[in-house]
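idk why but the lab printer keeps eating my pages so im just putting this in chat instead. protein + FE2/S2 (inorganic) cluster:
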Amino acid sequence: MSKMHVKLTVNGKEVEGLAEPRTLLIHFLREDLKITGPHIGCETSHCGACTVDIDGKSVKSCTTFVAQVNGADITTVEGLTNDDGSLGVLQEMFREHHGLQCGFCTPGMITRAHRLLQENPNPTEEEIRFGMAGNLCRCTGYQNIVKAISASADMLNAQKEAAE
Amino acid sequence: MIPAGFEYHRPGDIASAIGILQEHGDEARVIAGGHSLIPMMKLRMAEMGHLVDLQAIDELKGIQIGSDTVTLGAMVTQHELITHDGLAAAIPLIREAALQIADPQVRYMGTVGGNVANGDPGNDMPGLMQCLNATFELSGPDGNRSVAAREFYEAAYFTAREDEEILTRISIPVPGAGVGQAYEKQKRKIGDYATAAAAVMVGNGTASVAMTNLADTPIWSEGASAALADGDVNGCVAAMLDAIEPVADNRGPVEFKKHVAAVMLRRAIDRAQSRAG
Ligand SMILES: Cc1cc2nc3c(=O)[nH]c(=O)nc-3n(C[C@H](O)[C@H](O)[C@H](O)COP(=O)(O)OP(=O)(O)OC[C@H]3O[C@@H](n4cnc5c(N)ncnc54)[C@H](O)[C@@H]3O)c2cc1C
Ligand code: FES
Ligand code: FES
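predcted complex ->
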């Protein structure tokens, strides 16, 4: 099969490459672009470790062809740091609240939580659990992930208020 | 987990999409959200030379709320169904069911058209659409036609849609005021397909009852609906248990599935009745 020309914006930068249309986005990100934040856990659309943000949606990049997202704006966990490269709020709160142990699920968790908080800046614990249901963690038991996201919401809201 | 190769197309209107399907015959297949099709392609249970992506076709998008009818474009995602307040006001059953499908990530991508066209008995929207007495609009080389959701499903993965037809819109009559609605689904874990699910509408002397994943098609039962319209809950459940044909699989043996079916149906009826008024 012939390759197609792919053009994407990833973490604010325009990138281009050649890929077969059947290439899964996760493979294109990791192997062609060397963006290895998004992980491959199950590769069968179940675990959410491969979650990236595509045009404002949380998407499992193992279940997306690169052809489908040609022209899209993509954010991975690498794009959620502060401008100076220090940890962003969600990343910092996951660290502070022990929202990770082995860290394998974390890039997907943080990327999904980012979109959840964009859509619902004041989620209840139940809303966090429901909104994070597409991401599996085998280590933490989820309690500290929920705490980290809740603390991130508070901090982001405080930052917003201070800026106003 | 790498699918077989294909040539990718992204047409901008329905006519061009049908043209590509006609040109390549059964070598071509449309893709909507891809969240049923891509897993099948990865398993090499689906292979095609040409993949026709519907994402750039504006005619397939949008939700219209009329006083008598709601229409959904085939490419409306489950996420859009959930976040549309006008839709939740007109037919609350749709949001209630969509929230029980898969997980957030899948719901951003999965479309209502893909869910009803797929023909997988596990999909939730077909039974829902039968309960609501929806009509599917199809466009193909010979023009447009409509098929009632209650007549669309023939067997697992076999529907009334021809290979060269695209499902474009779904129209749904708005249930009258006073009609209570409920969707109840039993699943092994979040994100799972139903062990059994029930869609129920009841009120104003009418009722409609459909169930999911208990046969190789969704089951809308005229007998069960008529019994419930008469207020006969036991008769409704008995008629439905008679209509379903569950098979044993990793969700459980037949007896268990019938048991769960009855529990789901009774719960949905209770909740729908409590909302009727
Ligand atoms: C982890 C996971 C859990 C899931 N859980 C559930 C669940 O609980 N309940 C549930 O209902 N679904 C579930 N799904 C399936 C999901 O909802 C799918 O997104 C949906 O079934 C299909 O929609 P799609 O837009 O992704 O269709 P696609 O995968 O793109 O297409 C599915 C099929 O329909 C055809 N098709 C699509 N659109 C059209 C059209 N407009 N005209 C003609 N043919 C068309 C395609 O050719 C293909 O054969 C789950 C999926 C995953 C990955
Ligand atoms: S790797 Fe994509 S969902 Fe698990
Ligand atoms: S921290 Fe190990 S899987 Fe979540």
